[in-house]
Amino acid sequence: MELRDLGDAVAAVGRAFQIESHRLALAEALDSLQTTTSLPLDELLAGDLSDNPEQVAAWFRLLGDDLALDLSLEGLDPDAEPINATLRAGRDPRGALQAFLAAAQPVVEIQGADVSAVIRIAIGKTQAQAIAHRILAERPGELAAPDLLAHTNVVVMYQTAAWERLVALERLDVWASRGIVSAENRCCVFVCDAAGYLGGVALEIVGAANITAPVWLPVSPSAWRRFVERARQIRALRAEEQRWDHAPRFITPEHVALVERHAATTADAGLAETARRLAALRAALAATYLASQVDGTFAQGLNLRFAGARPTICRPDGDADIATDSADDSTLARLAGWAYAGGSPATLTIARECLADELPGGASVTLAQVEQAAETALEAAKANLTLYIQRNTTQYFALRQAAQDAVGAYSETVRKAVSDLTSDMVDSVYRTAALLVGIAIAWLIQPLASLWLLRIAIPLYVAYIVFLLLFVMRARWDRYVLEQTALRNRLATMDELTANLRARLIAPTIAADDYFQRYFRRSCWLYVALGALGIVLFILLWTPLAHSLAPAITSATPTPTHIVR
């Protein structure tokens, strides 16, 4: 691949100027590689560049304008003319190097080893970025679709060691600031000097030294949208249930979940170390998401607090705290995935409490100890969730049955109240009829006395009706309202019941309420009618009509006949 050739050219530049690989890796950033080195002039003149200056031309043919070399001599006599060389593409870099070496040869003969050659190296990544974008556009599958390519960031690293240096918890701030991880974008990292392929939904690591094309991970636009939504839910749940002032804006443990899709085909380890570091990073991130409180920043160090009776403190220190071969081996990652799977605070709380119970209270532990405790915590969390669900299920059905019983008891109470209303109404009618019969009998026995009896009995009867309306019927209505309110309040306190279920439970009570109110109104109107009838009769008793009744009755009554002998 073209990227592999670029990586080889960068490595050749480092070897030519005797720069160790680890120094070269430290000098490489995401957008360029820049370093300055110094060599004794005699070593530079005796090296490969002096014997084979053509290799400089080969570097510039591959790297083009991305490569810039500046050479100068340090330690010259104050009176000597400075000797410099600027090597750029399109400016005969081979000739410039030969001229520099030729000018430096007399200096060695005069000053010997006191003079050093200072080499400033700057290697950009414009050409490498263009090649990487072309590879992504030509890959098979839906990841080459324009909508997904528009959401894909590309990072090219000339050296795997430079990339591995970034795969650490303390470097995650760089990931966020340079777009390796963001809310809406994927990232594909190409390493030029390794073989292999690690595939993930949000992050891919491609070894440019592959002899054959990698087996690309199939990711559809819909799968990517689901991942984005899932990551958003995880971050929202963490923000609600955890105190972390400097929490990452985008990255979650799911972002660094990668699987090996293409292994190295040579004796080289390929991306094995990258996979190990990513697995350790995912475990460390999972620990931060499982902690109850996180203090500090990625760059300065984190303090994880696992809540319990006595909080446990963990200070992750790079990837040395945990050793894992793959992401699947991290129990912390599995525990965090289980805790955040359903987006439920209850599941996360159970996972945190189980993990805290497995850790020594009030002690400082390493990330490896937290990983070890997570193994038993995961099983305990699953068991506790089962018990929690069963307990809640039992409680739900018990509450629902209690609600149904309360509705049934209320309906029975309403029916009994209506029965009492009708019974009292019938009794009142019977009492009215009995009163009228008694008055009629008294009138027949003594008509004149019965008039005063009526004038006394009818007000008492009206007072009795008023007492029923203002006291008895009011008491019955207040009792009905209290029972109705008590039922509504009882159902409202049952938070486990859904609104639809409450509506279905209340439906029978609405019919019972209508039934009671209908007969209550009828009873009230009947009492009002009886009271009005009594008032009318009482008024009539004080009119001439009442006095005219007595003579009529008297004349109609037979008188004793005297027998005259």
Radius of gyration: 48 Å
Shape: rod-shaped
Helix content: 55-70%
- Low-confidence segments, ≥5 residues, pLDDT <50? 550-565
User: Which strand-content bin applies to the residues?
Assistant: 5-15%
- Helical run tally: 18
What is the SS-derived class?
alpha/beta
Q: How would you sum up the major sheet?
A: 5 strands, mixed
Mean pLDDT, to the nearest integer, reads 82
- The N- to C-terminal Cα distance equals 163 Å
Strand order of the largest sheet: 5-6-8-7-10
> Count the strands?
14
What's the arrangement of secondary structure elements?
Layout: H1 2-16, H2 21-27, E1 32-40, H3 41-46, H4 48-51, H5 54-63, E2 67-74, E3 84-87, H6 93-111, E4 116-124, H7 126-138, H8 146-149, E5 152-157, H9 160-166, H10 172-177, E6 186-191, E7 197-199, E8 203-207, H11 221-241, E9 243-244, E10 259-262, H12 272-290, E11 293-297, E12 301-306, E13 312-314, H13 331-341, H14 345-358, E14 364-365, H15 367-445, H16 447-492, H17 499-540, H18 544-555
Parallel strand pairs: 5-6, 6-8, 9-11, 13-14
Antiparallel strand pairs: 1-4, 2-3, 2-4, 7-8, 7-10, 11-12, 12-13
Note down, in words, how this protein is organized.
The chain is of the alpha/beta class. The protein is built from 18 helices and 14 strands. The chain has helices at residues 2-16, 21-27, 41-46, 48-51, 54-63, 93-111, 126-138, 146-149, 160-166, 172-177, 221-241, 272-290, 331-341, 345-358, 367-445, 447-492, 499-540, 544-555, and strands at residues 32-40, 67-74, 84-87, 116-124, 152-157, 186-191, 197-199, 203-207, 243-244, 259-262, 293-297, 301-306, 312-314, 364-365. Strands 5-6-8-7-10 form a five-stranded mixed sheet. Strand 11 and strand 12 form a beta hairpin. Helix 12 (272-290) packs across helix 13. The longest helix has 79 residues, at 367-445. It is rod-shaped, with a radius of gyration of 48 Å.
